[in-house]
Amino acid sequence: MLAIATALPTSAQEAQVAPPSSTREGVYTEEQAERGKEIMRDICAECHMDDEFMGTFIKSWAGASVGDLFEEVSTKMPEDRPGSMRPREYAQVLAYIFQLNGLPAGEVPMSSSIEELREIIIEGSQG
Ligand code: HEC
């Protein structure tokens, strides 16, 4: 009984609360962003600076879905080894990019399923 109870929270929460439809609604957790920061530093920083993914970057993706961005990054990056990371690591990097842009963290971790992520539209933190 206890084992079942601990297995339930995520799905129970999903059943009660409609899944978020915008990056303004808390679509990742702090833990994911923390891990994403490490991945950015260890892998992406070889070629990218954090600020490349802020401001105009997120604006250029506004209106597209998180699934679109996930697909783009997971099939093309890291440029020297495309697709070499695990799906959940790509989700962690995206969480960090959202955090860099002032988008809020939430309680439910971001999925690494492109289909599920297509339901979430990218919006900047304001306007
Ligand atoms: C070996 C160098 C290299 C590494 C490592 C690398 N990238 Fe890139 N990245 C590039 C280059 C070059 C481009 C521009 C050409 C292109 O779009 O394919 C690019 C483009 C991008 C873009 C599109 C930028 C835009 O303005 O649309 C994103 C997003 C991105 N990289 C994310 C990442 C992430 C996240 C990582 C780490 C997981 C990463 N990259 C690792 C070289 C790299």
- What is the structural class? mainly alpha
- How many domains? The number is 1
Largest sheet: none
Radius of gyration: 15 Å
Named once each, the bound ligands are: heme C
Q: State the helix count.
A: 7
Molecular shape: globular
Order of helices and strands: HHHHHHH
Number of strands: 0
Portion in strands: under 5%
Mean pLDDT: 90
Distance, first to last CA = 47 Å
Unreliable residue stretches: none
Can you describe this structure?
The protein has one domain. Helix content is 49%, strand content 0%. The chain contains seven helices and no strands. The chain has helices spanning 2-7, 9-16, 30-42, 56-61, 66-76, 87-100, 114-117. The protein is globular and about 40 Å long. The chain starts with a helix and ends in a 10-residue tail after the last helix. The protein binds heme C. Heme C (HEC) binds at residues 43-44, 46-48, 57, 73, 76-80, 93.
Structure, briefly:
With 127 residues, the chain is an all-alpha fold.
Topology of helices and strands:
Elements: H1 2-7, H2 9-16, H3 30-42, H4 56-61, H5 66-76, H6 87-100, H7 114-117
Helix pairs in contact: 3-6, 5-6
Heme C is lined by residues 43-44, 46-48, 57, 73, 76-80, 93.
